[in-house]
Amino acid sequence: MKLDKLLQGITTGEKGKAVRMDSEIGGICFDSRSIKSGDLFIAVRGSASDGHQYIGMALEKGAVAVLCEEIAAEFKNSPLIVTPDSHLALGVAASNFYGSPSEAMKVVGITGTNGKTTTVTLMHRLFTGLGYKCGLLSTIVNYIGDKEVEATHTTPDPVQMNSLMARMAAEGCEFCFMEVSSHSLDQKRTAGIHFTGGIFSNITHDHLDYHKTFAEYIKAKKSFFDNLGEDAFALTNIDDRNGMVMLQNTPARKYRYSCISPADFNCRIIEKGLDGMLVKIDNQEVWTKFIGVHNAYNLLAVYSAAILLGAGSEEVLVQISALTSVAGRLEYIKGFRELTAVVDYAHTPDALENVLKTLKDSADGKEIVTVFGCGGNRDKTKRPEMAKVAAKYSDKVVVTSDNPRFEEPEAIIEEIKAGFEVTERAKALFITDRKEAIRTALIMANPGSIVLVAGKGHENYQDVKGVKHHFDDKEVITGVFDQNI
C-alpha cells in the first residue's frame, strides 16, 4: 500500500526531508525487534519503553518511513513524519493497511471489569447457532468461524487485531464479538475499528496498578462509548452505579438493561439450583444451564445485544436455553465423598463475591471451602479485600500462590493475610504451593462440601519470574479425585 493511502485519516505535521508519500509499504511494525525491510515503523510510547529510542534501529533495518511524535535533530533528513498521537495513528494505519475489515462485519465490543469473556463467548455461540459465521476475540481464545486461533491478550494489538479481522472478513464472517479491555482503550488499540455496538457490564476494583486511580479506570472504560458512532448502539447495565456514566457523552443510540429496575431489557431469576436457573427475560420464561445473579446479567446482555442486532426474541431464547458455561467460569467437577469442586476465573473482590454468593445461595447449607491467591505485579490494593470476601462467604479458606510473576509468593500471601480479622484467622490456611493447597482443601473438606478454586480458571500455567510453567487447576483437582483418598 502507498504511504499516502496508509496515512488517510491520520493527522500529520512536520516531515523529514527524505519522506516520499508514494513509497510502497510492505507492513506495519511498532516493535523495532521484528521490523522488516519495507515496513512503516510507528514509534509509540509505552509504560516500559519508548519507541522513539529505536527509530535509528528501525531505519537501519530497512524501514521505508517512520511515524512518530517528534523528530530529533539527527533525523531531520530521514523519512520521518510527525503525528500528535502515535497510539491513535497505529490503530488507524493498521485498519487502513488491512482494508478496514471492521466495516465488512458487524463488530460488537464489551467492556467492564467482569463478565466480558462469558458474554462475548456466548454471543459467538448464539449467533453461530443461528446459522451465522462469526469471529471471536477473547481472553481465552480467538475464533475465525469455527477455526481456533490462540489468544495472547484480552484485546490484541492493532496490527494483530486488524489482521485477524481481515481473515474473518475474507472467510465470510458476518459478526465479530470482542472483549475490549481498559488497557487497550487507554492505549487506543481499538482506534480505526468501526463498532456496530458497545456493551458495558460493570466496573469494580481492578487494574489500579496500571490506571493508578479508580477515576482513570472509569475514564478509560467510558472512552469506548464516547468514540462510538451515531449508527452504533450503546448498551449499559444500569444496575451498576457507573452504568449511566458510560452513556453521558456517547453519540450512539442508548439502551439499558437491568435485573432490578425498569429498563429497555429486563431479567428476573424465578428458580435456581446447582444445575441451572429459570429466568424471565422480557416477560418470557426460559430455563438456562447457568447459575448466579452475575450470569443472569451476562445472559441478559447477550439477549439484549442480539435483539439490537436484529435477531428474533423467540429464536434467541431457544439458543440461550441450549448454551453452556464458558471454560474456567463456574466449571464443576464431581469427586469422592460427594465433593463438588468448582473452578472459576474470579480474581477481583467483586468477581469472587459474585461466585461465592452464587454457590452459597445454591449450596443448601453445604460447607464451602475457598482456595485463592492474588497475581504478582498487579493491583496490590485488592489483596486484603479478596481475603475479606473469602472469609465472609466461606467456612474454610486456603490462601495460595497465583501467578506471582516477579514478586515473592510469600510476600503476596502476607498482604492477603492482612485482610483477615483476628477471629477469622482460625479458619484460614496459608500454603504457598498451589498444587498442595488444592489437595489440602479437597482432603480437609467435609463430605458433600463445595470447594471453590478461584483465580486462574481457563489458564494452564503459573507465571513465575517471567517463565510460564504448566499448571492447570482442573488437572490437579481431577488428579486428587482419581486417587480416591
Euclidean distance between termini CA atoms: 64 Å
Ranges where pLDDT stays below 50 over 5 or more residues in a row are none
Number-wise, the strands total 23
Please compute the radius of gyration using only Cα atoms.
24 Å
Give the overall pLDDT as a whole number: 94
Whole-number count of domains: 3
Report helical residue fraction: 25-40%
Question: What is the 3D shape?
Answer: globular
CATH topology of the largest domain: UDP-N-acetylmuramoyl-L-alanine:D-glutamate ligase
Class of the largest domain in CATH? Alpha Beta
Structural class: alpha/beta
Largest sheet: 11 strands, mixed
CATH superfamily of the largest domain: Mur-like, catalytic domain
Which CATH architecture of the largest domain?
3-Layer(aba) Sandwich
What does this structure look like?
The chain has 485 residues and is an alpha/beta fold. The chain folds into 3 domains: 94 residues, MurE/MurF, N-terminal domain (Udp-n-acetylmuramoylalanyl-d-glutamate--2,6- Diaminopimelate Ligase, Chain: A, domain 1, 3-Layer(aba) Sandwich), CATH 3.40.1390; 224 residues, UDP-N-acetylmuramoyl-L-alanine:D-glutamate ligase; 153 residues, Mur ligase, C-terminal domain (Protein-Tyrosine Phosphatase, Chain A), CATH 3.90.190.20. It is 32% helix and 22% strand. The protein contains 15 helices and 23 strands. The strands form 4 sheets. The chain has an 11-stranded mixed sheet, sandwiched between helices. Strands 16-17-21-18-19-20 form a 6-stranded mixed sheet, sandwiched between helices. Strands 1-2-3-4 form a 4-stranded parallel sheet. Helix 13 links the parallel strand 19 and strand 20.
